[in-house]
């Protein structure tokens, strides 16, 4: 990324985002020029963004950042879309005290950045008819990460003993894609099934990822295991199956078998698509969405105005 010239504010991405530079093309064009990855500009930066998960396993390390000298007046931003269950530094007060702002999926974060799709994406998805459920298996799963603090692997295995699950990811793989065009292929594949096993790699409030939203977008019922408050992120009340509502996996499987046999009962979980999005969902989730990096620039501009002599 080219360093900005006479930008009003300068924001430095200090480290990598899962082994590659952050994709600034996803940042709003109006503020894109305020960002750089040139670490030689560290002393000039008004704010420095640290991707915490990469500090856990990469270079620089957590210890390197804790020892880094912070220029006077510079803001440090801790950025993560991952759960603190998997990256304990995020829940370590001794480490997090180095940062002025937290940018994360948590709604209590200083800058909230959600996995939830935008209002326009929901609108376009709901304009499309639900595709035919042509797959032989009732359930599909895409799971590749080895993180398993939620015991999702064991959970999936127990379900697989009673119901056929087509697993296309690296974890518990038993099915291959005929072609792979990335996310497009994934969504097209999911759409052919009645249910999608949506199992988060950690269980934490607000940690509701694309695993929950992707099936909903393509007219499939998520069988969800993850955030205790997932209902806050649901576009309508009866649109998913929360595994935490069942006393055991056999009880869950029995209910899924009932829905598989009773087409009317199953379709009740798709009827939400014909109604307006729930008002609480729109107010709490969609209307609060804003590009987090635009939000960061706005905060820096506001800070400069407050500091300017009168």
Automatic annotation (TrEMBL):
<keyword id="KW-0325">Glycoprotein</keyword>
<keyword id="KW-0808">Transferase</keyword>
<comment type="similarity">
    <text>Belongs to the glycosyltransferase 10 family.</text>
</comment>
<keyword id="KW-0735">Signal-anchor</keyword>
<protein>
    <submittedName>
        <fullName>Alpha-1,3-fucosyltransferase</fullName>
    </submittedName>
</protein>
<dbReference type="Pfam" id="PF17039">
    <property type="entry name" value="Glyco_tran_10_N"/>
</dbReference>
<comment type="pathway">
    <text>Protein modification.</text>
</comment>
<keyword id="KW-0328">Glycosyltransferase</keyword>
<dbReference type="InterPro" id="IPR038577">
    <property type="entry name" value="GT10-like_C_sf"/>
</dbReference>
<feature type="domain" description="Fucosyltransferase N-terminal">
    <location>
        <begin position="9"/>
        <end position="115"/>
    </location>
</feature>
<keyword id="KW-0812">Transmembrane</keyword>
<keyword id="KW-0472">Membrane</keyword>
<dbReference type="GO" id="GO:0016020">
    <property type="term" value="C:membrane"/>
</dbReference>
<dbReference type="Pfam" id="PF00852">
    <property type="entry name" value="Glyco_transf_10"/>
</dbReference>
<dbReference type="InterPro" id="IPR031481">
    <property type="entry name" value="Glyco_tran_10_N"/>
</dbReference>
<dbReference type="GO" id="GO:0046920">
    <property type="term" value="F:alpha-(1-&gt;3)-fucosyltransferase activity"/>
</dbReference>
<keyword id="KW-1133">Transmembrane helix</keyword>
<feature type="domain" description="Fucosyltransferase C-terminal">
    <location>
        <begin position="141"/>
        <end position="305"/>
    </location>
</feature>
<dbReference type="InterPro" id="IPR001503">
    <property type="entry name" value="Glyco_trans_10"/>
</dbReference>
<dbReference type="InterPro" id="IPR055270">
    <property type="entry name" value="Glyco_tran_10_C"/>
</dbReference>
<dbReference type="GO" id="GO:0012505">
    <property type="term" value="C:endomembrane system"/>
</dbReference>
């Amino acid at each position: 990324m080219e360093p900005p010239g006479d930008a009003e504010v300068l924001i430095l991405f200090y480290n990598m985002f899962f082994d590659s530079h952050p994709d600034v093309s996803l940042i709003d064009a109006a503020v894109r020029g305020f960002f750089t990855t040139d670490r030689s500009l560290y002393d000039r930066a008004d704010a420095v963004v640290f991707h915490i998960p990469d500090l856990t396993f990469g270079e620089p390390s957590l210890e390197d950042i804790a020892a880094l000298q912070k220029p006077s007046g510079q803001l440090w931003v801790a950025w993560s879309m991952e759960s603190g269950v998997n990256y304990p530094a995020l829940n370590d007060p001794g480490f997090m005290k180095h940062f002025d702002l937290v940018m994360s999926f948590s709604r209590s974060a200083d800058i909230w950045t959600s996995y939830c799709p935008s209002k326009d994406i929901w609108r376009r998805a709901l304009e499309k008819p639900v595709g035919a459920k042509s797959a032989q298996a009732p359930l599909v799963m895409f799971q590749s990460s080895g993180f398993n603090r939620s015991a999702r692997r064991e959970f999936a295995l127990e379900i697989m003993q009673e119901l056929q699950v087509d697993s296309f990811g690296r974890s518990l793989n038993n099915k291959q894609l005929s072609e792979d065009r990335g996310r497009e292929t994934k969504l097209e594949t999911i759409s052919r099934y009645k249910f999608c096993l949506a199992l988060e790699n950690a269980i934490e409030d607000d940690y509701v990822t694309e695993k929950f939203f992707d099936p909903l977008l393509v007219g499939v019922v998520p069988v969800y295991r993850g955030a205790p408050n997932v209902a806050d992120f649901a576009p309508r009340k009866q649109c998913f199956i929360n595994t935490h509502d069942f006393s055991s996996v056999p009880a869950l499987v029995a209910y899924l078998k009932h829905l598989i046999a009773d087409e009317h009962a199953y379709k009740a979980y798709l009827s939400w698509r014909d109604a307006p999005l729930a008002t609480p969902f729109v107010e709490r989730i969609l209307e609060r969405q804003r590009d987090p990096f635009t939000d960061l620039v706005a905060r820096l501009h506001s800070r400069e105005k407050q500091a300017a002599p009168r």
